[in-house]
Amino acid sequence: MNTLFVKDYDEMSQKGFEIFREVIETKENPIVSINTGGTTRGFYKLLVEAVNDGLDISNTTIFVLDEYIGPKNEVYTVYTYIHENFLDLVDTQPKEVHFIDGSIDNPDAEIERYKRLLDEHPRDFQLLGLGTNGHIGANEPGTPFDAEMFLAQHTDSTIESTMKEYDISREKTPTAMITLGFKEILEAEKIVLMISGEHKAEATKTLIEGEVTENNPASILQQYENATVIIDEEAASMLEKTQ
Ligand code: GLP
Question: Which residues touch 143 (CB under 8 Å, ≥6 apart)?
Fold first, then answer.
């Protein structure tokens, strides 16, 4: 795992986007998996600017990391977020966008459908954010490292983060989501995990200085040379060393 220490949110977004951009520009038919949340809004701003400035995404296939269980057009869904922050703002569209349908009655069938698609489309790039409890996607603490795509129940801290991020009541906040498992996440050729803010400092410390254990989901990245963790000063504030 490589670590990249940056000053602030903007520089984190910039560095994360640079790695993504190189994948888009060097692969003939890039296949990428992207995520949502507060951490990635700056990344999408840069992506939209770049596409409207001529970055060619017409050969790019997009997958998503996860999707909340709930009606498709709710404010918190990955579907809504990716439209509002990316697809509705760009002049040209990607070749294909594959969303996970979290509105269906039979999540198992949806998981099977999406897993087949993922098998047919090895990813060149996976974008990640970090939960305050160390989760990636919705692989919460305790999820086995060999987990494949599954229906995950959120912990309380994750439910609270979702409430805050989308400014919604607890009743309205989803408590479960379909997520790529560690297996599908780690299959990507390049993985970028962006971390910003003081509220992530403890999770960052556990990720960087803690042991590799299922209680600390993101720690698995320590074993992956193709993973880059981009950490801003606030998130790095509890680390022993930042060089
Ligand atoms: C959420 C999502 C992830 C996201 C992460 C960090 O629960 N399931 O896809 O990357 O947690 O979110 P944020 O960037 O808002 O802190």
Answer: 152, 181, 182, 214, 217
